[in-house]
Amino acid sequence: MEEQELAEHCKQGDRAAYKELYERYAGRLLNVCLRYTGNRDVAEDLLHDGFLKLFDSFDKFTWRGEGSLRAWMERVMVNVVLQYLRRNNVLNQSTPFDKAPEVYETPDSSDIEAIPPEVLMEFIQQLPAGYRTVLNLYVFEEKSHKEIATLLGINEKSSASQLARAKASLAIKVREWMKKNS
To answer: What's the burial of 112, exposed, middle or buried (CB within 10 Å: 0-12/13-18/19+)?
Structure first.
């Protein structure tokens, strides 16, 4: 079934379409949840909650061309995860400043490309929740610091600072991985 047809069937409450939607997108959406939570059990719970929200919200979906269904689903899933993080005060759990690098040397893009994607994903999952959340919103969701600040209830400078520290932490992990695996 094509994406538009699948979306229409889901809008009509077709259970077979729901099943196909889940089978087609669950893996990708689980990765979105994992990127934000860093915990597989929590990510799986949020994936389940997110699909329930998606199924209940299909009346709000508008087809805008190929890829719009996936984009809408990812946006809904990110909102479910952010709601969880806010509700559980995860974003306010901070890392001591002495453990948070302030500056970093950006690894060469060829170094980063040499690292398997699942290893990079693991590095992102190991970041403190605040860093990980800001990094995900900035890099993967392409949000500005102003948008991130509004979403998370922080100021723009905090968003920029957390992103810089996330990048610094990742740069250290990349360099260490390169030394071990070169």
So the answer is: middle
